[in-house]
Amino acid sequence: VCLNRAPKADELTALEQYYFRKRQRLERDAALVAQQFPGAAAAGADPAEAAAWSGVASFLLNLDEFIARE
Q1: What tens digit of pLDDT does each residue of 33-60 get?
Q2: What residues contact 18, with CB distance under 8 A and at least 6 apart?
Q3: DSSP assignment, residue 1?
Q4: How much is the pTM?
Q5: Residues 6 or more apart in contact with residue 3 via CB below 8 angstroms
Q6: End-to-end CA distance of the chain
């Protein structure tokens, strides 16, 4: 949605892999979660999952294609 087009298959695979790797790291190390959410994650949310999705959002919003639309 943020790129105004559907992702290509390889892009979707890369993004899914990024999410799962990030979530695994965050589940193993609570200190990493605390760095992203110094207070607390959203009420009722799993902190590692919320931090992983935050990483995905950051990943997408920092793509050159999002920043520099032609």
Answers
A1: 888 877 766 677 888 898 899 999 999 9
A2: 55, 56, 59
A3: -
A4: 0.80
A5: 60, 63, 65, 66
A6: 16
